[in-house]
Amino acid sequence: MGAPYFKVRAQLEDINAVIVSSNYTLYGNMSARVMEVLGQFTPDVEVYSIDEAWLDLSGFCHLSLDAYAREIAATTYRHTGIPVSIGIAPTKVLAKIANRICKQRKIPGQVFNLGSADSLDDVLASIEVQDIWGIGRRLSKKLQATGIHTAKDLRDADPDSMRRQYSVVMQRLILELRGVPCIGLEDIQPKKQIISSRSFGQRVEELEPLLQSVAMHATKAGEKLRSQGSACSAIQVSIRTGRHNPDEEYYSQSALARFPIPTADTRKLINAAGQALRRIYRKGRRYAKAGVMLLDISQANAMQGHLFQERDSEKAIALMSAIDQLNRIYGRRAVFFASEGCSKQWAMKRERMTQAFTTRWEDVPVVR
C-alpha cells in the first residue's frame, strides 16, 4: 500500500492484476449515494470520512439491532453495489472495534454486535492497543512501555491517573471502552485546513506549468472553502521533486502567503499562490508534485473586520457564487480561470481511469 506503480509493475503483471487510475469524481458520488441510503434508516448520521459514518440507533431499542443493521447493509448494497460492514456497540470506540472484527473475521451478514458478544473481555484482549481508534503509533509505543498492550489493558487502567499522565482524550477513550458514551455524534464542522494537491503525469521543469497547477489547486480549494461558508487568512504552496530517482537531488519546499483579512475569492487565492510559488521555485529541477493548503479558516459571516482593508465585496461574492453554480450545473471547468491553463500536459496520468457511470452522461451504459 502506498508503493509507486513502477516499483511493483512486474509483480502486478505476473498475477494479471487489473490496473486502474484514480477516479475521484466517481468515488465522491458513490460515497454520497451510500450516505444518502444510510440516512434513510436514522435521522442521526455523522459522516466521518468518504467511506465511514456513525449512525445513532439509540431510539430503535424496540427493534432487533442485529436484524436492522443487516437490513441496512443489504439495502446499501442493493441500491449502490457497495458492500458495507457494520459494528454495533454502546460507544463510538467500541463500535469501531466491532466494525474491525466484522471485517477481519468476515462475519455473516456483515454485522457484528459487540453488545451481544459472549465474552467482551476476550474480544478486547484480542485487540492490540495500536488498533484502537484514537491511539496513534507514537502513543501506542508509550502505552506498551507501561505494560498496556491490548484494549482490555487500556480499559482496566485508571481513567483519572491516565488523564493526568496523558490528556482528557485518553480518559474518554478508557470510559468509552467501559461502555460509557463520551464522544457523541457531532455536527459537521467546517474544515480547519483545506488541501488540494496532485502528482504530475510527467516531470515539470518550467515555472509556467507549475503556476497553472497551483492556480488549479487554488481554484479547487476555493470551491471547497465557499461550500462550507468559510474564508481563509493564509495559503501555503508546496512543491517537490521525485523521491525515487537516486540520480536527482530531492527538493521539497513550501511558502506561506497571508491575507490581511480572510477571503474566499479565488482570484486572490490564485494571485497569492503564484507569488508564494515564485519564492520557492528553483530552475533546473524536475518537479513531481505541487499543491496548496488553505489555513486559518473561519466562518465568512462571523470574521473580524480590518481597519484598513475591506472584506470580499458583494460583487466578488456574487461572481464566485455564479461560477460555482455554473460548474455544479454544467460540470467542472465549465467556467474556469485562464491562469489554470487550457492544455495540461503536466496533468496526472489517468489513461486507465474507470468510467464514471454515475456522473457523466457519455459513460452511462446503453441497454438495447
Structure description:
By secondary structure, the protein is of the alpha+beta class. It has two domains: 39-177, DNA polymerase, domain 1; 194-340, Dna Ligase, domain 1, CATH 3.30.1490.100. It has helices spanning 5-14, 24-38, 65-80, 92-105, 120-125, 137-145, 151-155, 159-165, 168-177, 207-227, 266-280, 314-330, and strands at 45-49, 52-55, 86-88, 111-113, 194-204, 230-241, 252-263, 287-299. Helix 2 packs antiparallel against helix 3 (65-80), helix 8 (159-165) packs antiparallel against helix 9 and helix 10 (207-227) packs antiparallel against helix 11. The longest helix has 21 residues, at 207-227. The two termini are 40 Å apart.
Keywords:
368 residues; 39% helix; two-stranded antiparallel sheet; Dna Ligase, domain 1; DNA polymerase, domain 1; single chain; alpha+beta
Compose a concise summary of this entry:
39% of the residues lie in helices and 17% in strands.
Residue stretches low in confidence (pLDDT < 50, at least 5 long) are none
What is the structural class?
alpha+beta
Cα end-to-end separation:
40 Å
> Which CATH-level-2 architecture of the largest domain?
2-Layer Sandwich
Helix and strand arrangement:
Blueprint: H1 5-14, H2 24-38, E1 45-49, E2 52-55, H3 65-80, E3 86-88, H4 92-105, E4 111-113, H5 120-125, H6 137-145, H7 151-155, H8 159-165, H9 168-177, E5 194-204, H10 207-227, E6 230-241, E7 252-263, H11 266-280, E8 287-299, H12 314-330
Parallel strand pairs: 3-4
Antiparallel strand pairs: 1-2, 5-8, 6-7, 6-8
